[in-house]
Amino acid sequence: FILALFEDDWLLPFNEHVVNWTNCAVVIPESQVNKTREILLAIPDDVRCNMQKCALEVWDRYIADRAGWVRGLVRSAVSTNDVNMIKP
Questions:
Q1: How many beta carbons lie within 10 A of that of residue 26, not counting itself?
Q2: Which of the chain's ends, N or C, has fewer CB atoms near its CB within 10 Å?
Q3: Distance between CA atoms of 62 and 69, rounded to whole angstroms?
Q4: How far is residue 18's CA from residue 78's CA, in Å, rounded to a whole number?
């Protein structure tokens, strides 16, 4: 399996400094839900395998329990603050 998210303008949990969702999931616009099968079948096996590994790692590290959620939220906040501190 691979994670398929059907969304339009949905904010994924944690920011890109914590989870690179494009490595872990296929984001499909709601308008293309009827093309899901074709989209998923077009993903090469090696890419699908890497996405599965990434999704499992994200699950284990950040989503499986409350401590993970806190860890992910803190890392998101810290990375956001670090980026904002660099801006003039």
A1: 19
A2: C
A3: 5
A4: 10
Would the pTM of this model clear 0.85, i.e. be above it? no
Return the exposure string of 42-78: e unless at least 16 CB atoms fall within 10 Å of the residue's CB, then b. Answer: eeeeeeeeebeebbeebeeebeeeeeeeeebeebbee
Long-range contacts of 56-61 (CB under 8 A, 24+ apart): 57/24, 58/19, 58/24
Spell out the per-residue pLDDT of the chain, length 88, in tens.
888 989 888 888 888 888 998 899 999 999 999 999 999 999 999 999 999 999 999 999 999 999 999 999 999 888 765 545 444 4
